[in-house]
Amino acid sequence: MYRRRDFLRLAAAGLASRPAFSRPAAPRFVSVQPELFAVSGGQPNCWADFDNDGDLDLFTGFKAGLPNRLYRNDRGRFTEIAADLGLADLTDTRAAAWGDFDADGRFDLFVGFTRKSEAPSRLYHNEGGRFVDVARDLGIDVKGESRQVSFIDFDNDGRVDLFVAFRDAPNMLFHNEGNRFVDVARDMGVDDPRKTVGAVWFDYNLDGRLDLFVANQDGTLNGLFRNDGNRFVDVAHELGMDASGRPSNHGSNGPSVVDFDNDGNLDLFVASYGPNFLFRADGRGGFTNVAGQAGVAGGDRATPSAWGDYDNDGWPDLYVSSYVDKPVNERDYLYHNDGGGRFTDAIPEEILKHGATHGVQWADFDGDGALDLALANNNPGGANHLYRNALPPEIARRSLQVLVLDQRGRYTKAGSEVRIYAPGTRKVLGTRLVDTGSGYCSQNAMPVHFGVPSGGPVDVEVTWMSNAGRKVTRVAKAKPGKLTVKVG
String of b and e for 139-169 (b: at least 16 CB within 10 Å)? Predict the structure, then answer.
C-alpha cells in the first residue's frame, strides 16, 4: 500500500506529483494467435513496418537450431514469412535491430550471433520484396558474442551509423561513410573491453550530441560515455552511475530511457543481476539513484526492461524480466507507475506464469491506441507470446503516437526526444525517446506512444540533434491518434 507519509517524503524530494494510495487494478491482456507464437527459444525481438503498409511487423531471433522469424502484420493478423524473405537464420541469434542505414525509405535489419557459432553478423538490406545480406560488402561482417545493436547518427552528419556491443570483446562503432562502414570505436574512445550486455544512446547533458550508456556484466563497471564531438569520455564514475564496488556475481543488463516522473528530463533504468538502478535526471547532467524509494530495485536476475504506458493514464509503466536457467520462471515484474515517484507491481497472472527471459517490447500492433506486449522466452517451458491489451476502447483512444522522420520522410532520427505539453503552456505531460536500444539487445523503428488521459489535444515538441546543436520542431494542439513529425 502506498502510504501518505511515503507521498509526503517523495514530494519533499521532488518525486511526487499526485498521490496514489491504492494498488492499481491488474491490466487485462489477451493472447494473440497462440498457435503461431507457441514456440520457445526467442531471444531478441523488435518491431518495424518493414513493408510500409502502415502496421508494425515483428522480428524475433531464436536459439541455435530454430529459425529466426518475421511475423508480418496484416491489420492485426500475423503470418510468419522469414524463410520467404531470406531471414530464417538457424544460428544462435543474440541481437537484432531495425534501421534505414542507406536512407532509402525501407527498414533494413542487422542480426548478431554468438561467438560459438563462428557466424559473422549480417546486415540485411531491404530490397522491397526480399532481404539481401550486405554486411561483408559494407565491412561489418564481424564475429563475437553480439549484444546491443543501435542505428544512430553519433556525429550528426546526417548518415545513420551503427554501434555493436559485445559480451566478450571491445565494442565497435561503425561510421557510415556513404558506401561503407568504418570502425572508429578505438579512435573515438568507445571500444569498451568490459562485458557489455546492454546499451542505450541519449543526450544526457543536453549538448546536442548523443551519449552512450553501457551496461556491463560479471562485476565490471558500467560506463556513460559523454560525446564531446571528437571523442567520447567515460564519466560514469564521477556521476555515480558505474556501480563501483559490486561483487563479481552482480552486473547490469538491459538499460532503458524514459521520463518516469513527467518533469521533462530523461531518466535511466538499468536492469541488473543484483539491485536494479533508476537514475533520476536533474536536468543539469546529474543523476540520483532512486530505485529503492521508487520500489523498482527488486528482482535478483533482471535482464531486459521496457517502458510503456499500458493504461494510458499519462505515466509510463515498466516491465522487467528475469533470466531463467530452469524450466520454472523466476519472477517477472510489471511495475505500474502510480504517478507519485512510486511504482506498484501489477503483473497479471496470465503473464506471470509465462513471463519472458529475454525479449520484452511494448507496441500498438493493432492500432487501437493501447500498447500491446510482445515477450520472447528462450526457456524450454516458455513461448514467444504476443498479448493484446484489452483496454476499453474509450480509454485506448486516449493516446498519441508520434512518428519522427527526417524532411525526406525517412527514419533517420533515432535518439530524438518527444515531449507533450498542456495546450498553450509549458506544463510537461510526458517525454519519450525515439528508440536507440530496447528490450533485450534490440532496436525498434516505430512511433513513440503517450497516454493522454484527458482525451484532448496537446502541444508536441520534437528535439532532434544536428551539427548546430539541439533543434526543436513544434506542433500545436495535436489531437489523440497518430501524428508524423518531420524534422531537419
Answer: ebebbbbbbbbbbbbbbbeebbbbbbbbbeb
What angle is formed at CA 353 by the lines to CA 374 and CA 146, rounded to 5 degrees?
45
Three cell numbers, residue 371: 500498447
Mean pLDDT of 40-65: 97
Distance, CA of 475 to chain centre: 25
Q: Residue 339 — left, alpha, or beta (φ > 0 → left; ψ -120 to 50 → alpha)?
A: left
Percent of the chain with pLDDT over 90: 88
What pLDDT was estimated at residue 383? 84
CB 246 within 8 A of CB 274: yes
In total, the chain counts a number of residues equal to: 488
Threshold 0.70, pTM exceeds:
yes
The side-by-side arrangement of strands in the sheet containing 372-375 is: 29-31, 386-389, 372-375, 360-363
List pLDDT tens digits, range 200-228. Answer: 999 999 999 999 999 999 999 999 999 99
Strands 223-227 and 232-234, by their bridges, are antiparallel
Plot region of 464 (φ>0 → left; ψ -120 to 50 → alpha; else → beta): beta
Pairing label, strands 172-176, 131-133: unpaired
Per-residue pLDDT tens digits for 398-454: 999 999 999 999 999 999 999 999 999 999 999 999 999 999 999 999 999 999 999
- Give buried/exposed letters for 39-51 (b at 16+ CB in 10 A, else e): bbbbbbbbbbbbb
The angle formed by the CA atoms of residues 236, 242 and 246, to the nearest 5 degrees, is: 165
